[in-house]
Amino acid sequence: MEYRQLDRTEFEDIASRILYEDNHIIILNKRVGEIVQGDKTGDEALSETLKAFIAVRDSKPGRVFVGVPHRLDRPVSGVSVFAKTSKALERLNAMFRNGEVRKTYWALCCNEPEAGATPEEDGFSLLENWLYRNEKQNKSYIEKEGQKDVKLARLKYRVIGHSDRYHLLEVELLTGRHHQIRCQLAGIGCCIKGDLKYGAPRSNPNGGICLMARSIRFGHPVRHEEIFVEAPVPEDWPPVNPIQG
To answer: How far is CA 35 from CA 44, 46, 103, 165, in A?
Structure first.
């Protein structure tokens, strides 16, 4: 099978963004605007770009397998996991589905969180909402329990930094609902910088939002040792002073 030829710049760019790789998985630092898996836009997905990259780098004459167990929204950046074998994909799918993967996000927000979450002993606050996904609008809404087609969404967050205008939140995702972090944080008056869809006053120059998949921790799907991978903070984010202590 033939894959498209990447030019030197694109090849080196992909190579520079690999955060972890072995025979079974590859973890990439996704950029704002990239799609992980093909959609109705017809734009090339990262999964397809990775196939072309691996075919050239490893001189593979046949089909290259790249599966997608983990999806990030187009305007979100950071840690993105891909499977290089069908066995790894099957096991990773089950791990994500069963909550065996610890996903930590950073969100740069326009306001400090309002009341509405339950404090936890570990310094995080627990936030639970029932979300409804409007597919026509590609947007989620907080609704009351018991309404049709709602799903429980759970996350934990804490404030870890401030600047003159923004507040940095660390978020641990406990469920995987559509636009969950964006919708739930907006629900406590804490919209993400650049996220016009959920209440931010203005867009970011790159069209993305200041939400990133900061790190991921899970047991290797084949070798079973713990894997921890962290992505660097995007260079275009404004500087934030971390909270000490």
So the answer is: 7, 6, 19, 29
Question: Helix H segments across 68-120?
Answer: 86-97
User: For residue range 31-79, what is the model confidence (pLDDT) as tens digits?
Assistant: 999 999 877 788 899 999 999 999 999 998 889 999 999 899 999 999 9
Domain extent, residue 11, equals 1-99+217-232
Task: Supply the DSSP symbol for 192.
Answer: B
Output phi, psi for 196, to 5 deg. Answer: -60, -35
Residue 83 sits in a domain whose CATH number is 3.30.2350.10
To the nearest whole percent, how much of the chain has pLDDT over 70? 96
Mean pLDDT of 140-167: 95
Sign of CA dihedral 124, 174, 137, 107: positive
Residue 70 forms part of a structural domain: yes
Q: Do 204 and 194 touch, CB atoms closer than 8 A?
A: yes
How many folded domains does the chain comprise?
1
**Which H or E run contains 234?**
none
* pTM for this prediction: 0.93
Closest to 144 in 3D by CA, of 128, 156, 127, 155: 128
Residue 110 and residue 145 in contact, taking contact as beta carbons nearer than 8 Å: no
Any domain includes 111: no
Q: Which of 213, 159, 149 is nearest to 185 (CA)?
A: 159
Dihedrals phi, psi of 90, to nearest 5 degrees = -60, -45
> Is residue 42 in a domain?
yes
Question: Has residue 205 been placed in a domain?
Answer: no
Predicted pLDDT of residue 113: 86
184: helix, coil or strand? helix
